[in-house]
Each structure stands twice: as C-alpha cells, then as structure tokens.
Amino acid sequence: MGKMKNAPENKKEKEAEEKEKKEPKKVPETKELALIEEVLAKADVPPEIKQRITTLIASERISPFPHPIASKLTAEHITKMIEYSNQDSKRENEFSKRSQVFNVIYLLLGIGVLVFALIFLADNEDLLKDILLGALAFAGGIGTGYGYKAMKSK
Q1: Burial of 128 (0-12, 13-18, 19+ CB in 10 A)
Q2: Domain tally for the chain?
Q3: Any domain includes 113
Q4: pLDDT digits (tens, 9 = 90+) for 30-56
C-alpha cells in the first residue's frame, strides 16, 4: 500500500501538528493596535473607514503574515482618514445640491416651453398635438430612465 498524501512523514511533524491543535492561536497585542481600537471606539468614524481599519487589524491578529500597513497604522493616520472622509462627504453633498438645482432649472425650462407651445400654437391643433405627443414621450423616457437607474442601484 502507498502512503497517505497528507500524512506527516515523521514523529516531529506529528507532534508539532498535535501541539498546534491543542494550543489556541495567540493574538498578538501591541500598543499601537490597542491605541487604534481606542481611537475607533471614541471617534465618530464613518462605517467604510471603520471596516477598512478593522480588516487591517484583524489581518494583523489572525494571519501569520500580517498586512504590512497594519503594523504602521497610528492614531494620526486614522484621524487623517476621518478628515478625508469628511471632506469627501462634503463634496458629495455639494454635488447633490448642485444636481438638484439643475434638475429644477430643467423642469422649469420644460414647463416654460410647454406653456409657450400651448399659448402660441392654440390655433394650429395638429401641430400642437404632435408637440404634446413628443413632449409626453420625452417625459416618459426620462421617467423610465430614472426608474431603471433606481432599480439598478438597489
């Protein structure tokens, strides 16, 4: 009979394997990691940054080959990450406000063109019908696009 594929070759390997199974892995505790956890607990950290930092810390604790950045992470780095996240949130908020303003302007322009068409083309019913039909089709297309975008983002 042949040897088993994953069986240890000698007694030393068997003993090392048994010792590994009996002893739980020790979690390396460092002063820096404790400080990082303390800062995370006290600070108002956005969830995405907290997730990144927690992942780095977990890899430091679990993996025999920790992430190289995790051992160099300090409270100052976390503070900078929080500041950058806050700046990014402010930019997103400004962009959202500008977008809303432009949407309102476009809506008012569309309503203005429609009112203009109704007032000045009231005599020519065929042309008015065609324009209103086109406007309704355009509005329906825009509504469908927004609906599709909302559905896709979920």
Answers
A1: middle
A2: 1
A3: no
A4: 666 666 667 777 777 777 777 777 777
